[in-house]
Design brief:
Layout (H helix, E strand, L loop, with lengths): L10 H10 L1 H11 L4 H15 L5 H4 L1 H5 L3 E2 L1 H10 L4 H8 E3 L5 E3 L7 E2 L2 E2 L7 H5 L12 H7 L4 H13 L7
Antiparallel strand pairs: 1-3, 2-3, 4-5
Helix pairs in contact: 3-10
Amino acid sequence: MKSPFQPQTNLAIMAEYAASHQQENDRFAAYIKEYNDEEIDAKVQELDALISPTISCTDCGNCCKSLMVCLNEGEADRLSGHLNMKREDFDLTYLEKGSNGLMIMNRMPCPFLANNKCSVYEYRFEGCKEFPALHMPHFKRRIFTTFMHYDRCPIIFNVVEALKEEMHFTKDQ
């Protein structure tokens, strides 16, 4: 009888593994490029559906501690309204703005992270809602960013490692 899946959630172990397996991950990124987009998406989404429920994001909160989150005007308007802040004050307090109109949160960890939970969950930004984006199509197009987060997100780490197994990828020893 197969034992239940036990995900790797230790961030230090994941970071060490990622660093020592960089070439393997580079080979895997090239390896999956040879496969059909829909086939890869289906495998990733299936593994995500199996693995995500085994990992509690609020045990980790690492994405909120280490990612620069982009937002748009509508998201900033909604959150500033929820916080009963003038938009100008919200921008000065929480945002960094680029000359091209790009807006990002101005510090990490996210100022709305409290006890590894989002204190403005209903008003969180689209990028927060989508992360780690394994449920979305076009996984192959996002492989670079997936590997950028591989060492910081237990869901990504475990899905990628399971995908290697599922695809009979020859791993480094």
